[in-house]
């Protein structure tokens, strides 16, 4: 899924209708929104979506804007087409909540700064420190309980940086990976970048995960 970039260049000789372009962008974003929820529904194999009370996403980003955009799109309710479970026409509204434990330096502007996040910090979250596997193990042990706030979520949202999704892989929760900018942010050296490429392939191989980007470069790169 590619979410079109609103500043995509258009040739001067090309006829261009700004209103049509805006409508196309909105359509792309809404289709991505639909796919996000449909992937979650597919993952937990609901027999009847009407018995499902709500949808909960987990986010721990280093940027406040991408997650704010998603909140605007999904909250307070999302219209789920029941075609996902066999009906062609009916829809049902599901309340959407997002557990937002922001690691951004600007989180105070949205009052979303993490206050009780375990293991992950502003210092180690972007590059997963000098020993990523050890950090992943510690994070998994901290949240592996079925009663933990993380395991009570229906899916993980990764936007900025998407490479942070590496630390959530052991939980086997659906992942929504939407690259807000360069997908390799946080993977500063060749070894860690190659590791992230391999893990991104593993994430993409699971049909219940969603991979997207807001531009063609990162969509092709990822």
Features:
alpha/beta, six-stranded mixed beta sheet, 222 residues, 5 helices, disordered N terminus
Overall description:
The chain has helices at 18-44, 64-74, 132-143, 190-205, 216-221; strands at 55-59, 77-81, 91-100, 155-158, 175-179, 210-213. The longest helix has 27 residues, at 18-44. With 222 residues, it is of the alpha/beta class. It contains five helices and six strands; from the N terminus they run αβαββαββαβα. The N and C termini lie close together (11 Å). α4 links the parallel β5 and β6 (210-213). 30% of the residues are buried.
Write the layout of secondary structure elements.
Elements lengths: L17 H27 L10 E5 L4 H11 L2 E5 L9 E10 L31 H12 L11 E4 L16 E5 L10 H16 L4 E4 L2 H6 L1
Parallel strand pairs: 1-3, 1-4, 4-5, 5-6
Antiparallel strand pairs: 2-3
Element-by-element helix/strand order: HEHEEHEEHEH
- Rg over CA atoms: 18 Å
| Beta-strand percent range | 5-15%
Give the neighbour order of strands across the main sheet.
Answer: 2-3-1-4-5-6
- The assigned structural class equals alpha/beta
How does the overall form come out from the CA principal axes?
globular
Largest sheet: 6 strands, mixed
Tally the beta strands.
6
Question: How many helices in DSSP terms?
Answer: 5
- Give unreliable regions as ranges: 1-23
Report the mean per-residue pLDDT as an integer: 76
Helix content: 25-40%
- First-to-last CA distance: 11 Å
Short description:
The protein has 222 residues and is α/β, with parallel strands linked by helices. It has five helices and six strands; from the N terminus they run αβαββαββαβα.
